[in-house]
C-alpha cells in the first residue's frame, strides 16, 4: 500500500506573509497620513515630504504584495519581499541616523522611541523570511487549487 504524500502548497507560509505585509502596509498608511499632516503644517517642508513619500512607497509596496500573496500571484511574493526590505531599511536608517542626532520621519527632536523603532524590525524581518521560503514560492505557483 503506497501512501501519496502531497507536498504542502505553501499556504502555511504564504498567508501569514500576506497578513504581515497587509498589516505593515496599514501601519505605513498611518505614516502617510502623518506625513500629510506635516505637509499641511508649518514644519520643515523637506522632512514632511520625505516622511510622506517614504511611507507612501512602503505602504503601496506592502499592500500590493499582501494582496498579491492572498491571490497566490508571483508578483505578490516579489512585492512583499521588496516592501518588507524597504521597511526594514527605513527602520534601520531611522535608528542609525538618530544615533548621529539626525531625526526624520516626522521626528523633530530626541522624541524618537528607539525601542519601538527597533521592535518594528521584527515583523518586517518575519515578513521577508516567510515570503522568501520555498513553500511560499510553491504557493504563488500552485495557488488555491
Structure description:
The protein is an all-alpha fold. The protein has one domain. The chain has five helices and no strands. Helix 3 runs antiparallel to helix 4 and helix 3 packs antiparallel against helix 5. It is elongated and about 50 Å long.
SSE order and pairing:
Blueprint: H1 11-40, H2 45-70, H3 74-99, H4 114-132, H5 134-142
- Overall tally of domains: 1
Order of helices and strands: HHHHH
Helical fraction equals: over 70%
Mean pLDDT: 84
Percent range for β-strand residues = under 5%
Low-pLDDT residue spans: 1-6
**What separation lies between the terminal Cα atoms?**
26 Å
The largest pleated sheet is described as: none
| Overall strand count | 0
Shape: elongated
Counting DSSP H or I runs of 4 or more residues, the number of helices is 5
How big is the Rg?
18 Å
Descriptive terms for the model:
single chain; 145 residues; mainly alpha; disordered N terminus; membrane; transmembrane helix; transmembrane
Quick structural overview:
The protein is mainly alpha-helical and about 140 residues long.
